[in-house]
Fold this protein.
Amino acid sequence: MNDTRTPSAIDRIAEQWVDTLCELEPDMRIWLGREGDITSYGDHSPAGHAAYISAVRATLSDLRKTDPVDDIDRVTKLDLTADLELSIELSESKWHLRDLNNIASPAQGVRDVFDLMPTDGVEAWEAVATKLGNVAGALAGYRESLTSGIREGHVPARRQIIEVITQAERNGGRDGFFVDFATNTAPADLPESLRAQLRTSAESARLAYLELVNFLRNDLAPASHDNDGVGRDVYQLHSHHFLGTTVDLDETYEWGLDELARMTKEQEEIARRIAGGSVADAVAALDNDPSRKIHGTDALQAWMQNLSDTAVRELGREHFDIPEKMRKLECHIAPTKEGGSYYTGPSDDFSRAGRMWWSVPEGVTEFDTWRETTTVYHEGVPGHHLQIAQAVYNSRELNTWRRQLAGSSGHAEGWALYAERLMSELGYLDDDGDRFGMLDGQRMRAARVVLDIGVHLGKKRPDGNSVWDAEYAYDFMRANVLMEDEFVRFEVNRYLGWPGQAPSYKIGQRIWEDLRAESQRREGSAFSLPAWHKRALDIGGTGLDTLRVAVLGDW
């Protein structure tokens, strides 16, 4: 192995950008596992956004004046430039003044950061108590931005406001997250003075969320509208943001319909093998198979961990080079109850391991392995953990921005879907039930391409009647996924409020697969799949335009 690369001028610009982000958004230090103040929040007000954009412009100016010294620099400059330019475009669209949805807006982020805050020892809990006391200020700044949006005519759809009101009321409840966190999660042996501070700060945070509820209900909702679709121009901008490339939306919509038909056909074929009948018959047979049933979240966590550990151990023998630091992947039941699973990467020094989280809705106590096996591969190894932790591990070549912050949803989620198909290719989904579950997930992702583009662009419905709207979207999703209705509604509401994000999974997978095929075509018999995977993952997260250039060497 070569010595650590000497940082270049472009590396220094990228490192300074990370430092700037940590100053503007202290939560970034928590994500990175950095020293420094983690008790404050970033400024979610218009003034805070203006400070961010000013820093973006200054960094972009420095970057444009600096020449790369090697291919690593070329990737950094290409991708960071694209990222900063897109930040300016999004700002000019005034999206930050209407940034509210049911999954990924400040309404969730202010609370979500507590999932990753250190909680070992008195000092850590003192920081938690201070952070809890700062929730009110963070939400006040957020309300300022939304208020500016009302004045300027940039407001979210009413549907998203209703969803966030429900979430915020839950956080603000007397038995909600903040109260539970301060009273039940905090160790009993903390000093009583600190426990009292935690209770007081938690009460402040709880009331701040109820104040947000009042604002959303009494100020934002009356100014909102019922148009779930954002229109072609805004959607193209968000699609580019999540993919790191621009795609032909009309061609992609038609491809999504074809891909959905292909997934459906394959799933129906396996259903006939499983139960001799329809997809519904196969679901019933699988759900009634006691060998595929898990009872309780403790058992779910243990099953996740065992399957994950097995994948790390076996794939590390032949298919992937998995360093020792990356072999620890923690599986957790998330403290939230919204549904779904997600991954959080390791800290830069791996003192905090990569983590797979499962958010289990209230009242759900039974789980089916045939539905969830592919999810473990998607979130863990060879999916997100292998992808993200590999970039973190590659510190001898990659600056902090490249290791920890760069990337796009199309790159990350596209790889994770590619990883699911790869596990099938490697024989890990030969069981008809597990493969059926994988196809269900892939079918859902194809349906999302069609639904998301269809609703936001107001395209003609696949059934030929009228154009897409929310109610048809719910029915379309119900027909294409094996989910309880509450999951379906949450998912569809997510697509309506987060334009362009959901299709990035399947479109990203398409681009990853196309890149692999193109690399094989160019390299012929010299092509090695493990070597290709390593080369691609060593690049770290990028937009998909940058990924193509870097993987193929088409500078």
